[in-house]
Amino acid sequence: MAENIIELRGVNKVYDDNVVLDNFNLDIKKNEFLTLLGPSGCGKTTLLKIIAGFEYADDGKVIFEGKEINDMPPNERHVNTVFQKYSLFPHMNVYENVAFGLKIKKTPKDIIDQKVKEVLKLVALEGFEKRDIDSLSGGQQQRIAIARAVVNEPKVLLLDEPLGALDLKLRQEMQVELKRIQKKLGITFVFVTHDQEEALSMSDTIVVLNKGKIQQMGTPQDIYNEPKNAFVADFIGESNIIPGTMLEDFKVVFADREFECVDKGFDKNEEIEVVIRPEDIKMVSPEEGMLKGIVKSTIFRGVHYEIELEANGITWLLHNTQNAEVGTELGMDIYPEDIHIMKKAGECHEN
Question: Is it the case that residue 64 has pLDDT exceeding 90?
Fold first, then answer.
């Protein structure tokens, strides 16, 4: 098992009676790409600043490689940060921006030249040394910000929504690029975002936050396929969240009928919530369906149609490559492995 590089123990942070982090505990492994995901105000950026040393915890411990660093200033921590606003120096060219931290450390010039050349190759910007910062595209500026951070060879790189200012196509390209750079360097990345697609596409581990607490932590596949509560299910992708009753192991009732499922370990007749992803509902004829209902709306989303259907008093969301006319009757099939059972809202926190 990978060794922890950062450990947070009982961390609290309050601003003007607003609890931003509430008895927060987290282990971050060496060499992993960990993403802090959640809505604005959930505490993810504050957490990043506490790790970096730009903010201090009111209570609790920040531990780096087994040593408490609560009172250690930012410049003495083996971490570097890349912000959404890249904070590049406009009066310096690319070489000078990347070399800045090394010059502050009084690194010999030949070593600076070597390191700057290596890191510009890493971010695919060889030959850009003399370019002005203002002449670069947004994606190129972001790469320079990363190069400036990693040239100092930090053990952890903190990234605070660094892709937020880029357009969609460039953002998707940079997601691939960031993951490549992280694997090449073999250092720990802690990435902050509110964009679930970014989190799912890049991360080894996702930590879903809300109101200063961890709602769920796991691999992208675990977070998407097995959400622990309604907040996670609703925040990560789109979901149908339906109240139900767990009759016994592998048997659940919702939408006025009984279904087989693959979940167990709940109390008999326990009130639960069911999560079904829109893409997991099979669209069939009304005669063949486990459920049937009337199409209320349909929207073309490029790779699929988004269909709203009213059945058994519930508005269902379906994703399908085939369209359906508004007002027509459709059947729906739901397989046991696509039915995910959760505790009722408010009953599951990992923190």
Answer: yes
Q: With the CA atoms of 128, 131, 133 and 135 taken in that order, what torsion angle do they form, in degrees rounded to the nearest 10?
A: -110
- Asked if 174 and 310 touch (Cβ cutoff 8 Å), the reply is no
- How far is the first Cα of the chain from the last one, in angstroms, to the nearest whole number? 21
Q: Judge contact between 30 and 188, C-beta under 8 A.
A: yes
Q: In terms of C-beta distances under 8 Å and separation of at least 24 residues, what long-range contacts does 301-309 make, across chains too?
A: 304/279, 306/278, 307/283
In the block, which residue shows the tokens 């890493």? 122
Indicate the pTM of the whole model. Answer: 0.86
Are 331 and 295 within 8 A, CB to CB?
Answer: no
Q: Is the domain 238-281+336-351 a CATH 2.40.50 member?
A: yes
The domain covering 4-225 belongs, at the CATH homologous superfamily level, to P-loop containing nucleotide triphosphate hydrolases (3.40.50.300)
Nearest CA to 98 out of 136, 52, 49 is that of 136
Whether 238-281+336-351 shares its CATH topology with 292-333 is answered: yes
Mean local confidence (pLDDT), 25-33 = 96
How many other CB atoms are there within 10 angstroms of residue 106's CB atom? 6
Fold of 292-333: OB fold (Dihydrolipoamide Acetyltransferase, E2P) (2.40.50)
